[in-house]
Amino acid sequence: MKQFSPTFLLLLLFTYCSVAWAQAPAAAPAPPAVAPAPPAVVPAPPALVPAPPAAAPAPPGPTNVTAILEKASQFTTFIRLLQDTKVENQITTQLNDSNQGLTVFAPTDSAFSNLKGGTLNSFTAEQKVQLIQFHVLPTFYSPSQFQTASNPLGTQAGGSEGSFGMNVTTSGNQVNITTGVTNATVANTVYTDGQLAVYQVDHVLLPLNFFVTPAPAPAPSKHKKPARSPSGSDTSTPANTSGTTCLSKKLFQATACVMIVLAAFH
Ligand SMILES: *[C@@H]1O[C@H](CO)[C@@H](O)[C@H](O)[C@H]1NC(C)=O
Ligand SMILES: *[C@@H]1O[C@H](CO)[C@@H](O)[C@H](O)[C@H]1NC(C)=O
Ligand SMILES: *[C@@H]1O[C@H](CO)[C@@H](O)[C@H](O)[C@H]1NC(C)=O
Ligand SMILES: *[C@@H]1O[C@H](CO)[C@@H](O)[C@H](O)[C@H]1NC(C)=O
Ligand SMILES: *[C@@H]1O[C@H](CO)[C@@H](O)[C@H](O)[C@H]1NC(C)=O
Ligand SMILES: *[C@@H]1O[C@H](CO)[C@@H](O)[C@H](O)[C@H]1NC(C)=O
Fold first, then answer.
1. Centre of ligand 1 from the C-alpha of residue 30, in Å
2. To pair with 135 at 20 to 30 A between CA atoms, which of 33, 106, 195, 215?
3. Does the CB atom of residue 154 touch ligand 5 within 6 A?
4. What residue ranges line ligand 2, CB within 6 angstroms?
5. Per CATH, the architecture of 65-204 is what?
6. Where are the domains of the chain?
């Protein structure tokens, strides 16, 4: 090496680096970005369908379910539970805000007294709310609309889980309900106005959910995590590693250049 002058070495270095860096863009005309940002790849979902405007012609205040049930005079336990759980207020609000209407299955007092002793008391406060919400469908059903309803019907207790459903079967005018725990028959139409339907049922509808032990939560998956997950990216799109490879190559070449420089001036 002694016979090479530093000038020659620098020339050599310059040549090598020029070639190295010239090759890189030719081999991969990748943008300088380290990895394509996934959000750019995934098209933004279209804006959600805007909620339908509350264009209902305002009647004189929302229908009062409690008043309707009081008039029928055999729903005192159900009324008390509607009030204790505040589901009464939810019904009132929903009738005012939604144009889908509501359907309420009201068990009679004797239906409550036919429950196995201690059933109600065995429920937590949260379960009592769910129990009453389970008796409310977020859609108006006329008796004939049950014939074409597709099972299972979601209830107000469902939330986003959809696990508080019930099935209806019909035959002529008869409507039966099964929850998987309770079989009940719709005995009577207490009230209907095209927005709200209140039906008398002969059993308290117990949600199957209360009696099945929830499936064990799936074990945390041992999937390999992507080496570098761009923050905020929750898509499962695998990272495109080509960019990374290009960068590594460049890094390697740059390191080689630096090493030659060091060798030249040592
Ligand atoms: C990854 O990026 C390279 C260039 O940057 C491109 O040619 C290739 O199609 C990409 N692959 C995928 C799976 O997106
Ligand atoms: C509904 O009616 C009940 C009984 O008639 C009454 O106590 C209650 O205050 C009424 N609720 C509303 C929101 O008017
Ligand atoms: C009913 O809805 C209207 C507008 O949607 C609102 O102004 C009014 O306060 C609501 N009434 C009740 C009792 O919730
Ligand atoms: C409803 O239930 C009653 C009593 O269990 C039964 O006799 C009837 O056949 C059922 N009807 C339908 C349509 O399922
Ligand atoms: C309700 O109906 C659905 C669909 O037909 C069925 O999968 C489900 O097992 C039924 N549940 C009960 C409790 O009958
Ligand atoms: C409900 O009805 C189904 C079939 O009609 C029957 O198999 C089931 O045992 C009944 N359940 C109860 C709690 O009566």
1. 9
2. 215
3. no
4. 64, 66-67, 70, 92
5. Roll (2.30)
6. 65-204
